[in-house]
Amino acid sequence: MHQIPSKAHLVLLLTLVLILPLLSCQSAPAPKGKDVVSGASPAGNEMPAIKDEIAPLASGKRVLVVFFSQGSATRRVADDLASLLGADSDPIIELKSRQGFFGFISAGADSSMGKATPIAPALRDPSAYDFVVVCTPVWAWHLAPPVRSWLSQARGKLPECAYVVVSANTAPEKIVAMMTTASGKEPKVYVGFVEKDFTVESRSTYLAKLEHIVDRLR
Residue 147 class from Cβ within 10 Å (0-12 exposed, 13-18 middle, 19+ buried)? Predict the structure, then answer.
């Protein structure tokens, strides 16, 4: 006869199922093959000012850069793009706590199941701009819930836009498809940054990806 699993065994099994995809949800840099929420940039602050490496946009367009970042990688990309585009910035603030073990569990579970999450009211109206750039990290190989929430709230308000994905190695097309579904808006351009792009050795790749977005607005 097969023994019926006890309640304790079922709870343990469920916990393991939830934990396995969550190895990618930490704010610290993740092991190779895993996605990162937004780890510290290995390049640090030793790089030249971004405007000394790429010519800023001078089109007169009103641009907004929206981003969510628990570390520094996604924020670094957003800050560099805002500087190059002469854009306003609007950080997404999640109201749900992700602290501790259960916060860690819920982060991956929410992202894997495609859930939104409570966020603070946006500081700026995307419909007031000519172009909007939305930057997201990757949680458990899925769109981060706070960005999903912002895109859902902005549905029908987005002008032309760009989507930026920051992960360890996830193909950006997968996350961009999720962003498009949430917002109802296809991007004019998208770029995916991976962990190695933030190293000093890969600076030229990092700059090329930034320039790809800037050039589409020139």
Answer: buried
Residue type, 115: K
Closest among 74, 75, 87 to 214, alpha carbons compared? 87
Are 169 and 195 contacting, i.e. CB atoms less than 8 angstroms apart?
Answer: yes
Q: pLDDT tens digits, residue range 12-50?
A: 344 444 444 443 333 333 333 334 433 444 444 567 899
**CA 186 to chain CA mean position, Å:** 17
What pLDDT is stored for residue 119 in this prediction?
95
Both tokens assigned to 176: 């961009």
Cα–Cα distance between 56 and 193 in angstroms, integer? Answer: 20
Q: Which CATH class is domain 7-217?
A: alpha beta
- Determine contact, residues 144/136, Cβ cutoff 8 Å: yes
Can you tell me which residue has the tokens 């930034």? 210
How many CB atoms neighbour CB 154 within 10 A?
A: 21
68's tokens: 């969510």
